[in-house]
Amino acid sequence: MGSFETNISSVTSFTLTGFPEMEGLEHWLAALLLLLYAVSILGNSLILFVIKEEQSLHQPMYYFLSLLSVNDLGVSFSTLPTILATLCFHAPETAFDACLIQMFFIHFFSWTESGILLAMSFDRYVAICNPLHYSTALTDTRVAHMGISIIIRSFCMVFPLPFLLKRLPFCKDNILTHSYCLHPDLIRLPCGDTTTNSMYGLFIVVSAFGVDSVLILLSYVLILHSALVIASREERLKSLNTCVSHICAVLIFYVPMVSVSMVH
């Protein structure tokens, strides 16, 4: 009994796995990932700079795009430290509290991105279905309120996760299957009952990703219905063309995210 308690109390770090199946290719993989991080960081920074400098882009659609770019930068900077430590410096150990902090920010930015994509779909709905009321429905103040609401919602959803994990006894091999800390990965390790953690994780997946994806789908059904009643074929294509990039972003985000979350 004493050795069991000692084992629990001595847990101060986690081991990040990285990519063991690609042994011998770590340097090439690290170079590729660093290139992708550089492209992401420079690309999103350029988007923010162009929108800030170009007055004609000071519109709701580009405000949401700016928020999405800031969020993507947050995701990059949240995962980059442990990716670098694991692949470049061969230091897979991460402190317990540091792992919980990283988990918080990764999931916070994930839920924030879901909310931003929903706001962008609402923007496209108003622009196509009610174009005459676009400027009055989406004022700068309302866009700011929507952005703040998205951030507050994400914070409130993710805030309990570290505390729900911290109350559990960790007595197994603290080896994670990724190069960063995720809640579905962490709840496999405690010896205690993780039912509360699993149920809360499922609840926020359904209430955030599930509800957001349904509302986005509904908005595009309404957009498609409005576009089809337009007499001119050119006008229909022009209206739908403004939604293509957003639809691609939604599919790239939701399909893997919801699938992986539901499996866990």
Task: Summarize the helices and strands and which ones pair or pack.
Layout: H1 2-9, E1 13-16, H2 26-53, H3 60-88, E2 93-95, H4 96-129, H5 134-137, H6 140-158, H7 160-166, E3 175-176, H8 183-186, H9 195-228, H10 233-241, H11 244-263
Parallel strand pairs: 1-3
Antiparallel strand pairs: 1-2
Helix pairs in contact: 2-3, 3-4, 4-6, 4-9, 4-11, 9-10, 9-11
* Percent of residues in β-strands: under 5%
Helix and strand succession? Answer: HEHHEHHHHEHHHH
Which shape, going by the Cα principal axes? globular
What proportion of the residues is helical, as a percent range? over 70%
Q: What is the number of beta strands? A: 3
**Total of helices:** 11
**Termini, distance in Å?**
31 Å
Please mark out the parts with pLDDT under 50 across 5 or more consecutive residues, or reply none. 1-10
Structural class: mainly alpha
Mean pLDDT: 82
What radius of gyration results from the CA coordinates?
Answer: 22 Å
Order of strands, main sheet, comes to: 2-1-3
**What can be said about the biggest beta sheet?**
3 strands, mixed
Can you walk through the features of this model?
- This protein is mostly helical.
- The chain is built from eleven helices and three strands; from the N terminus they run αβααβααααβαααα.
- Strands 2-1-3 form a three-stranded mixed sheet.
- It is globular and about 65 Å long.
- The model is unreliable at 1-10 (pLDDT under 50).
